[in-house]
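Input chain follows. Return structure tokens only.
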Amino acid sequence: MALSLAGHPCAAITCTTPDPPKCLSATTLRTYSSPGTCKDKQCSYPHQDQTCPHGCDNGACKSIPGLVPLAPFRFLDTRGGAVPASGSTKCVAIAGKAGIPTTAKAVAVNLVAVAPSGNGYLIAYPKGIAQPNVSTLNYATGDTIANGAIVKLGSGGLKRAYAEAARGALAAAGQKEQYRTRTVVVSFEHADTSPVHHVAGRVGARPLGSAYGDRVALQFELRASRVDEFKTAITEATHGRAQVDDQAR
């Protein structure tokens, strides 16, 4: 015997359009799947509930903003051009380029120094704030060195780069910059190795020698005019644990 659905309330109804996801509570999201079933001309759809660790809003689980991988992009390259002058600052436009949205709050960058003509450091920081006291990359004469960092973006999606290094033009012109130096010995605990090296790179101190025992002793050469700055910075970076001795040359 053949059966016909003609006249059945659901005969012409196909349940293939589920309801959109919705928040059942502040932390619970309900999603629907297709196909559904029809009864009395009404479709019902299978559903699944899930807990949103960071809360539910407008039919979706909230997420904590994070890093989104993008293809590498070179925003600035000074090779073959004018070498950044010591103490100079350059603004680099980041947001809105290379797939980075204008709403981006920070970027992961890789900074590289290629055979610099003098010791120095580079600070990357957002436009619109005071220059930080912490460097992003420290380098010595002739180094090729890189360092990665996550840097916030400032007003207009700009990042600033501050360079403290000897002018490359001096070497190119065959001149030699003359200044008085001092030999400085820093004695400190092993745990303070990183802060000491950071300060040394920031003031352009050149390492001469080292000794390791219960404490570390590092010998540096730096401009006499920067010795007081070096002592103060070492004291602050090590919270007074390091001792600095210098001798005029």
